[in-house]
Write a sequence for this structure.
């Protein structure tokens, strides 16, 4: 039998002492890839509590999923109805989400990682509402999240108290890599509630088959890269009819080369966001973003 929280039913705006990531919480996200299997599961768990710089924090770990070029944020802290994450690069806490946000409210989040110079995400609350899950009245938000420098992709869309975002978790996919993309939140559970996406039959993928680790067809390094600095393209399985095509952010083709060996070099004189496409017999088989700064 599900527990009913009478206070929450009488006062829909009641603020829970912990709005997100109670210890033991488990999120199951569906992942997709540009160049490999169509689906995969990422499982994220709130593993325990710790203290960082005098703040009580929850630590997250990834039990399953593709994280080849994924910036996984591990430590979160909640204060005054706001969610912060610990930035290991700056040794400080950064505002991530405002649980008391109303339509029209805005804020920004600075994001850093080991692969780039970072980015800033601008949040805008489009709409707010409530949802009842296992007798609890939880707040939800429709939000827009836009990167200022296109270094990160944060397709969040909808956020629900306790469950978190539906499109991408409160961690960021590095924009220069299409290797693993979060598609949907399939299931969530903690000590108080259990939720399953009504669009799926079960948490696990019914078509999931265990197999060897996914390896993208090619790799670009470094990425991001400085203007005028060569980028090495390593092809795992070269073929006689393999081409590499580079387009700019407007879709214009700016470079093309035949790839007859397993390695090639690309040098771009102008900064920007580019798409590098691998073609076989004239058909695209893989793409990756390339950031030139």
């Amino acid at each position: 039998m599900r527990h009913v929280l009478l206070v929450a039913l009488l006062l829909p705006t009641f603020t829970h002492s912990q709005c997100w990531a109670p210890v033991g919480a488990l999120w199951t996200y569906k992942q997709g890839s540009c160049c490999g299997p169509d689906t995969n599961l990422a499982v994220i768990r709130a593993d325990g509590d710790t203290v960082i710089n005098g703040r009580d924090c929850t630590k997250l770990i990834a039990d399953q999923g593709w994280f080849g070029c994924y910036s996984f944020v591990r430590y979160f802290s909640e204060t005054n109805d706001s969610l912060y994450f610990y930035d290991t690069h700056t040794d400080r806490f950064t505002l991530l989400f405002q649980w008391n946000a109303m339509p029209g409210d805005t804020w920004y989040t600075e994001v850093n990682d080991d692969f780039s110079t970072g980015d800033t995400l601008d949040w805008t609350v489009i709409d707010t509402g409530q949802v009842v899950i296992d007798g609890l009245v939880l707040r939800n938000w429709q939000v827009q999240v836009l990167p200022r420098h296109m270094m990160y992709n944060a397709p969040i869309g909808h956020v629900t108290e306790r469950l978190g975002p539906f499109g991408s978790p409160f961690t960021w996919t590095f924009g220069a890599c299409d290797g693993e993309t979060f598609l949907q939140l399939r299931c969530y559970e903690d000590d108080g509630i259990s939720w399953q996406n009504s669009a799926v039959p079960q948490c696990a993928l019914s078509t999931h088959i265990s197999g060897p680790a996914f390896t993208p067809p090619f790799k670009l390094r470094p990425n991001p890269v400085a203007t005028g600095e060569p980028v090495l393209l390593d092809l795992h399985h070269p073929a006689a009819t393999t081409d590499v095509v580079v387009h700019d952010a407007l879709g214009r083709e700016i470079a093309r080369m035949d790839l007859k060996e397993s390695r090639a070099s690309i040098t771009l004189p102008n900064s920007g966001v580019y798409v590098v496409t691998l073609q076989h017999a004239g058909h695209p088989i893989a793409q990756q973003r390339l950031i030139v700064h």
Helices lie at 6-10. The longest strand covers residues 119-133.
